[in-house]
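To illustrate this point, what follows is a protein record of this kind.

___
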Amino acid sequence: MTLTKRAILLGTTAIAVTAVTVSLAGVHLSRGSSLLKSTPKDLIEEVWQVIDHSYVDGTFNQTDWRSVRREYLGREYSDKKQAYLAIREMLKKLNDPYTRFLDPEEFKNMRIDTSGELIGVGIQLAADEKTKKLTVISPIEGSPASKAGILSKDIIIKIDEKSTNGMDVNDAVKLIRGEAGTSVKLTIQRGGKEIIEYNLKRDRIELHPVRFNVQKTTAGDTGYIRLTQFSAPAVKDMRDAMKSLEKQNVTGYILDLRSNPGGLLQASIEIGRMWIKEGGIVSTVDRKGEGDRQSANNTALTDKPVVVLVDGGSASASEILSGALQDNKRAKIVGIRTFGKGLVQSVRELGDNESGLAVTIAKYLTPNGRDINKHGIDPDVEIKLTEAQQKELLRDREKIGTSVDPQFAKAAQVLTEEIKVAKASK
């Protein structure tokens, strides 16, 4: 399977309400053939052809895809906006929240997502596959949503008093996004019962995907690395962090992927190679059964014991990395079950040179062949945070990754045992 002509998406539902962004995985943006002088129908035909040739399910989720073509090309369209609406309507027939059309503004902001700076409230937003309710995957660390106390799994039931019942994710994003300094009110349902209102002021969000330090734990001097997003700067930042911590002679590592919604596929592969000397990292399978396998290449920066922290907000590229570390027995996974996004999307620029299309083209498997879609990665050691503990960590984010963080404390205990095992084996 060639991954060189399209952007590969492994985001959850991949829409981040920082600007309307998608969590990318393996970005190699392709360009459609020029349609600048063509009709709106040409754009609809292009989208239909892309789905027809590359969609992961050859039955198109039990949709008569050829009749869809006849239906939409049989209509008349006066401009591109009408074509855009028709394309969205056409794609809904697939009943796949991950396959979606991106209008020029959405497509532009999707590409901005990997640059490291966004404007918005900082919510990774998904449509629950079963209930279709708008669900928070995770707030982006340091964002207005995070500071206000919005949590992973919160359900957005109103946006500025407008009900989200039956609302498309893209439509919700358009209501939530806006200029820096303006405000939006979100009504949240938490735990199926509690209703909370949040008045959020949109802001410019600088994304620093990696932060690290040395923590004194029972395991000795422990290298703590928190990775919040697999964006373009993440690879270099991770390499720099690991090299710095190695120079400080840490005894082992705690890699924190909690509330990391994913990002660039290539970033997850390259970061995996920093931890894994040899072995598989991820493989993909398309509708023809063809596989593309990515493996370690003997460039690991350390062989010291590792414990990985995950939660329900750890998704897509986070699950690739944690699954690879787990399957290769390179790390113990601590926390709670991850989000469960095991489908691969490609994104391409369409022929109008303005809009884009994300298409589910494959599923990905962990090195041992596990399909984690809708299930997630199960931790080796489970430890949940109470709602009170979550709120406390959100109130004072400096406590995250310290001894007063219960999941970090458990990770330190597990790391201590792993260091003992490593010493005994040597």
